[in-house]
Amino acid sequence: MKTRPCDNMLLVLVLILVQMNRVHAQDPQWPLHTVCDSERITVTYRSCDPLQDIGFTLLPCPERLTDFIKIRLALILRQSIDELYSSYELWLHGQNEPILNRDEPLCLPHFPRFKFCGSRRGEIITVESSFKSKTNIPLKANFDLKLRAINQDGFLIACVNATLSFH
Questions:
Q1: Which domains does the chain have, with CATH numbers?
Q2: Percent of the chain as helix, strand, coil, to the nearest 5
Q3: Global pTM?
Q4: What is residue 121's DSSP assignment?
Q5: Cis-peptide, bond into residue 60, ω within 30° of zero
Q6: Is 24 helix (H, G, I), strand (E, B) or coil?
Q7: What φ, ψ does residue 56 adopt, rounded to 5°?
Q8: Does residue 66 have a pLDDT over 60?
Q9: Residues 137-145: what's their mean pLDDT?
Q10: Euclidean distance between CA atoms 158 and 163, whole angstroms
Q11: Phi, psi angle pair for 115, to nearest 5°
């Protein structure tokens, strides 16, 4: 799937504007971003990295889980990623234990699974993926999703707290 240069430039512009707003804001948290808001689902997120916000899009906003969804994430690297490890937890809102918890290596030495593996400090990385569920589960619940990515030196590359609300 090819991206047009204007798509990437728009995402970079949004990231720069958010970074500039952050410098002048008194709020210690990044803004809450609404990625999707439909009759069926609402998705919001906030960067939990104290130094950097990230850009995230979900297009189109699905009415059903079986709809085809294009996901895009972008950020400016503050450290290189020769190795990258991800961790995510899915919580039913208000519960004390996650219902799903997974740690997974994304980039390992001599085994780059993704094209962003080996990216250097200062580069803009864009991750694109597609998703389509095989079943349309009739969910009516709120979920909290915590995502973190750490490089080979233990440096936080990305951190996101998201809320998925199924109406």
A1: 5-17+30-166 (2.60.40.770)
A2: 10, 45, 45
A3: 0.75
A4: T
A5: yes
A6: helix
A7: -145, 130
A8: yes
A9: 83
A10: 17
A11: -70, -15
Which residues does residue 107 pair with via DSSP β-bridges, in sequence order? 84, 112
Cβ-contact 54, 47 below 8 angstroms: yes
Contact (Cβ atoms closer than 8 angstroms) between residue 151 and residue 81: yes
Evaluate whether 77 touches 149 at the Cβ level (below 8 Å): no
**CA atoms of 16 and 4, how far apart (whole Å):** 19
Tokens standing for residue 142:
């709120």
Give the pLDDT score at 13: 59
Check residue 139 and give its pLDDT. Answer: 74
Distances (CA, A) of 154 to 42, 114, 120, 132: 32, 19, 15, 33
Strands (E), the chain: 33-37, 41-47, 55-59, 69-76, 84-92, 100-108, 111-112, 124-131, 142-151, 156-166
